[in-house]
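Posting this for the archive.
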Amino acid sequence: MKMKNNVIITSFADLDREEIRVRKRIKKQEEEIKLKLKTLPEEIVTTGITKIVTNILNGELFRSAISIIKTVGSAISGNKEGSEKGGILNLIKTIVKDRLSS
């Protein structure tokens, strides 16, 4: 955006003209900013979807989800290496056995 910096004001009329010119320039800039702010959420969503699709295609998201599922499954069933009767299922079985035998 090109702006004039060398404005010579010698009368009130010059001052009024310059004030009007500056106000118009500011109003135009405000409108441009409002338009950019309206498109910003759309751009964020588009970028997010693009990132997710790219990760799915690369397999990174799938690998992460499978890793989490395996970890949760191991914690529930107690199939982790080196665990003796660990896991939530074994804990529940033990509690039920204890309650039924009482």
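The radius of gyration is 34 Å. The chain has a mean pLDDT of 77.
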